[in-house]
């Protein structure tokens, strides 16, 4: 039975909300903590600390639309690729994809890549830009996955327009570099847009 580290007396588990700054952003995280019945002082166990971080990271992922570790694993399996092949596809370090599948929080600079690889159009854009870098075996798997997933309407050239504001946000997150496969276009219908 757990006892208070302050008095040796009884404790109770409660939910507590704490503000926390993560990557320069404020989050109010509600997580379990123990409270000393005698003094009202709070403390946590390692398990509670891990739960706090899990909740914080889930809030960050939701705010930034970052795929969860389970989604990344399912996407890799859907494509029939190894973790090493996924890393190569995205230009990541050899083990980076495996770490993301294990739950590591991605760097801000990789968030866009993870979002893109989890969408059909994003994947098609990445493959188009990386095909000269990938082994033929990997390319065959990717082409098969893309053709299987595409309907006739999706077989048209991939084009996803982003607003100028979205481009500036992406540039800020990428440290000033355009995301992989992005090119500035000038068209009367969509001035100052990026096409993939």
UniProtKB/TrEMBL annotation:
<protein>
    <submittedName>
        <fullName>Uncharacterized protein</fullName>
    </submittedName>
</protein>
<dbReference type="Pfam" id="PF15731">
    <property type="entry name" value="MqsA_antitoxin"/>
</dbReference>
<dbReference type="GO" id="GO:0003677">
    <property type="term" value="F:DNA binding"/>
</dbReference>
<dbReference type="InterPro" id="IPR022452">
    <property type="entry name" value="MqsA"/>
</dbReference>
<dbReference type="InterPro" id="IPR032758">
    <property type="entry name" value="MqsA/HigA-2"/>
</dbReference>
<dbReference type="InterPro" id="IPR010982">
    <property type="entry name" value="Lambda_DNA-bd_dom_sf"/>
</dbReference>
<dbReference type="InterPro" id="IPR001387">
    <property type="entry name" value="Cro/C1-type_HTH"/>
</dbReference>
């Amino acid at each position: 039975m757990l006892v208070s580290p302050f008095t040796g007396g009884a404790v109770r588990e409660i939910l507590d909300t704490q503000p926390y700054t993560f990557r320069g952003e404020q989050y109010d995280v509600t997580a379990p903590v123990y409270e000393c019945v005698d003094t009202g002082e709070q403390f946590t166990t390692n398990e509670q600390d891990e739960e706090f971080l899990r909740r914080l990271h889930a809030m960050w992922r939701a705010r930034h639309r970052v795929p969860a570790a389970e989604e990344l694993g399912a996407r890799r399996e859907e494509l029939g690729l190894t973790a090493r092949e996924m890393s190569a596809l995205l230009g990541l370090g050899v083990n980076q994809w495996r770490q993301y599948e294990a739950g590591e929080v991605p760097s801000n600079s990789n968030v866009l890549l993870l979002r893109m690889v989890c969408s059909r159009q994003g994947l098609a854009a990445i493959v188009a830009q990386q095909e000269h870098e990938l082994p033929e075996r990997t390319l065959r798997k990717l082409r098969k996955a893309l053709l299987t997933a595409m309907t006739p309407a999706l077989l048209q050239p991939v084009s996803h327009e982003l607003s100028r504001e979205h481009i500036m946000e992406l540039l800020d997150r990428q440290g000033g570099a355009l995301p992989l496969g992005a090119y500035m276009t000038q068209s009367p219908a969509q001035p100052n847009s990026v096409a993939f």
